């Protein structure tokens, strides 16, 4: 079994039951353990994948999608009786959506101009958008009218948005790594994987935005 599977099994069998039975302290401790395991065994493996491990990369994305869908199920499971979103949908969240859409556009422009000297400009623009997203997401957490202790539904929503935020932070490091792009077969393949990962993060946000914010409109 790969490290990808082991780390995600920790989240699936430890954190998710804490959501259902609503033990915030235990959930926080286990989530910290999961973050440690993810950083120790997964992060650098993602960025140092060999060509023979392409399937592992795609399996990693599939496993991440399953985790997101599971937490989304928790949001729908506990939604009854919750009349407020964690933030006004047409405020900071819609701004975050535009930032990620622009970031996705810039990274696509970079992908189309790999051999161009000016291609790195698009990476810088995409990185700026991602950093602004992180800033607004943290500001949203700090100024939310609710918190994860109010209700299991809000705990699920904050975990979903927070999990996506952790992927944006990880993806931002990947964008920074793209700035060192050189024309070689291995590096080109590696950068393609980073670009695919960033698009994955963008698409997941559209789903998160729909579930966490738009449902309450």
TrEMBL record:
The UniProt record lists the Heme-copper oxidase subunit III family profile domain at 1-217
Biological processes, Gene Ontology terms: aerobic electron transport chain
- Subcellular location, record wording: Cell membrane
Q: Which UniProt keywords apply?
A: Cell membrane, Membrane, Mitochondrion, Transmembrane, Transmembrane helix
GO MF terms listed in the record are:
cytochrome-c oxidase activity
List the transmembrane segments: 6-37, 57-79, 85-109, 121-138, 153-176, 196-215
The terms describing its cellular component in GO are: plasma membrane
Annotated membrane topology is: Multi-pass membrane protein
Indicate yes or no for the key word Transmembrane: yes
State the protein's purpose. Component of the cytochrome c oxidase, the last enzyme in the mitochondrial electron transport chain which drives oxidative phosphorylation. The respiratory chain contains 3 multisubunit complexes succinate dehydrogenase (complex II, CII), ubiquinol-cytochrome c oxidoreductase (cytochrome b-c1 complex, complex III, CIII) and cytochrome c oxidase (complex IV, CIV), that cooperate to transfer electrons derived from NADH and succinate to molecular oxygen, creating an electrochemical gradient over the inner membrane that drives transmembrane transport and the ATP synthase.
The record's family statement is:
Belongs to the cytochrome c oxidase subunit 3 family.
Q: Output this protein's name.
A: Cytochrome c oxidase subunit 3
| Gene of this entry | cox3
């Amino acid at each position: 079994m790969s490290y990808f599977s082991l780390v995600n099994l920790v989240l699936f069998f430890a954190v998710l039951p804490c959501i259902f039975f609503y033990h915030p302290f235990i959930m926080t401790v286990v989530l910290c353990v999961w973050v440690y395991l993810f950083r120790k065994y997964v992060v650098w493996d993602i960025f140092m994948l060999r060509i023979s491990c392409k399937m592992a990369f795609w399996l990693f994305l599939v496993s991440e999608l399953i985790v997101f869908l599971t937490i989304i199920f928790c949001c729908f499971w506990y939604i009854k009786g919750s009349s407020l979103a964690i933030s006004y949908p047409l405020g900071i969240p819609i701004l975050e959506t535009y930032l990620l859409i622009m970031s996705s556009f810039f990274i696509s422009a970079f992908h189309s101009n790999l051999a161009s000297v000016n291609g790195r400009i698009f990476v810088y623009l995409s990185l700026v958008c991602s950093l602004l997203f992180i800033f607004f997401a943290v500001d949203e957490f700090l100024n939310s009218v609710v918190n994860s202790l109010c209700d299991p539904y809000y705990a699920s929503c904050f975990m979903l948005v927070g999990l996506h935020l952790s992927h944006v932070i990880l993806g931002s490091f990947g964008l920074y790594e793209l700035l060192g792009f050189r024309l070689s077969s291995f590096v080109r393949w590696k950068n393609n994987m980073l670009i695919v990962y960033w698009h994955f993060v963008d698409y997941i946000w559209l789903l998160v935005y729909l579930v966490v914010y738009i449902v309450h409109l």
